[in-house]
Amino acid sequence: MSESAAAAPLQHSLFSPQSPRVPRPSATGHSSLWMSLFFPRLSLEVLEADVDARPWAVIDESHGKPIVHAASQPARKMGVESGMALTAAYALCPELEAEPRDRSAEQSCLTDLADGAMQYSSVVSLEPQALLLEVAASLKLFGGLQALHRRVEGDLEQQPYDVEIAVAPSPQAALLLARCGMQTCITEIAALRAELGKLPLAVLPVSEKQATLLGRMGLRELRDVWRLPRAGLIKRLGLEFIDYLDRLLCDKPELRLSHKSAANFSASWYFPQETENLTFILYGIEQLLPRLMNFMRLRELALSRLQVIFYHQDKQASRLELGTRQLCRDETHLSTLIRERFNQEKLSAPVLELVLLAEEFHPAVIGNQSLFAPGEEQDTDWQQLLDQLQTRLGEEAVCHLQLRDEHRPEYAWAYAPTQSAEPKTHGLLNRRPLWLLSQPERLGSRLKEIQLTSEMERIEGGWWDGFDIRRDYYRARDRQGRRLWLFRNLQDGEWYLQGLFG
Amino acid sequence: MKEPLKKLLNNNQLIWCGERCAPIKRGLPTGHTALDDILPEAGWLQGALIEVISPQWGIGEIELFLPAMAAATQADKQLVWIAPPYIPYPPALVGGGISLRHLLVLRPPRHQDIPWAMETVLRQRRCAMVLAWPDRLISKTVRRLQLAAEAGGGVGVLFRSQHRDSSFAATRLLLKPSTSGLQVTILKSRATRGRQTVALALH
Q1: pLDDT above 70 covers what percent of chain B?
Q2: Residues of A in contact with B202 (CB under 8 A)
Q3: Which of A359, A390, A421 is the last residue of a domain?
Q4: Highest mean pLDDT among A8-12, A324-328, A472-476
Q5: Pairs across A and B, CB distance < 8 A
Q6: Nearest to B64 by CA among B191, B190, B168, B186
Q7: Which of B56, B104, B105 sits opposite A480 (nearest CB)?
Q8: What is the ipTM of this complex?
Q9: What is the mean pLDDT of chain B?
Q10: Where do the DSSP E strands lie in B57-132?
């Protein structure tokens, strides 16, 4: 029957190449081009790092019966195929180990890959086991399709996943080609028909019923299908099937929702057993940090706060918070800060799982590197040092001094967390001591040992904010040779020591 | 002396040869002429530790370093004070010519963090002077600090109240108050010429 269909002259088929369709322009005025990344062994790869070490398979359920979803290379050699019933697989390969499919792991892995793919295209769409990227708009930026293809391929080589890449003007065609393992690049809509026509019908994502029907009709390849009259096909296989073929050949536009990347970064690391050993915990954190860096790099972001959450067995989760004084996206710096924190803080209990969480991001300011002055570089070093000090000593411990425009000595200064702008020169006529006591100290009987060495300076006022003072200040020297700054409080008549000329 | 040996002695800063020592690089001017005259490097030795011994504070020990600190901040270098015994009073610091932007004060809540903080800061090239008031130090820690100062090239000043006979610090000063100001005795310095005392007038 297939021969007769092939031999029959082209009938009034709506798919006939005689009526070429104009490429449908996309919003940008160019016809779109889709790159599909298909991960054929994803379900295996998310479960084990070394997939081909032993004969094993991932098992999925179909009609309540376990079937093989994907099998490792040793198992495939014994004849285990995907789609095979598990019992049949056991018969072929008795030592086969079956693992249940982990769909959520696959999905999160695919989401991560989609986040990564956002650097090549603004439209990245998720499919089962595959990603679709609209690349027509990215060609100019990356210097052509070949360069982009090479780049995507190069980047994916660093991932532990097998991938098939195909490019076609329609998303469905790109997907189909990648699923068939045909790493082809089709850029013209006109060429689509010739390339896709060679594919066997078995690769089409159709229901079992439709597949049997197509088989009974004697059709073998895709080109056999579009030689048939459209009306008949609709009647036999349903409108959905025809709609799919239309989208496959770019005859109908297809709207695809783009993947939205998460606003927060959160990644977890599981320990095989509870651990208190810092080496293991730091190892876990260091495995997660590159992912955080990648997250920020792709989005041009930087962070100033980072949390590490530890989950324990039967105990409430504990957390460790880190802050940097300036926006940061330096992996070694963050790693140093975390190590510094661990040097002083002890874990409350053994850890089962840790989560690296960053919720606050800011647009990264990437400074140009100065050609002549190395000053900026030094400044980064200095800021990193401040972060390190702050992490170990606490935020309160790292401070700058601030000069205030105020005549009362104890209000003329303040500790500030950051460098403040240089104040106007303080209009002081009289000398002030280099050391100030945090509280004026009452001299009492020690006054006898003290010898005044200067004229009196009166400082008074402050009724406007409730801290009114009336004091007579003197410089003095005590028996040990210390040079003192003291005052007589005119309100109570007592003598106080307030500073030292250090 | 054989020629290669002479060459080695003259070119190696680490070999100490008494009076005829290796060519000395100029130190950071102290700002006190009388003190510059008796210090072998004509100033504070850079990339080294200075140990200041005094039974009490408030006798002019900061004023001793004030001109050098002011010059450092003018040159866009950083100053760090670690665990000062009292509050460094900004009006007087600004009056002494220090730019507050370049002064960092660290107040570690635990005493055992002071040597760590000082070592970390001393390793920074941007830091010209680090002043620290440690509670107590073992000599091994002083050695570590001395090495950190050598790596960073800044001046580290340790204020200590106990008098010990020896220390790894490159320079050791003993301070005593005098009627006119401060009496500084050099207990130890590279290429020392015995104990030398100088009286500085402080106003």
Answers
A1: 89
A2: 483, 501
A3: A390
A4: A472-476
A5: 153
A6: B186
A7: B56
A8: 0.87
A9: 86
A10: 78-82, 87-88, 103-106, 127-132
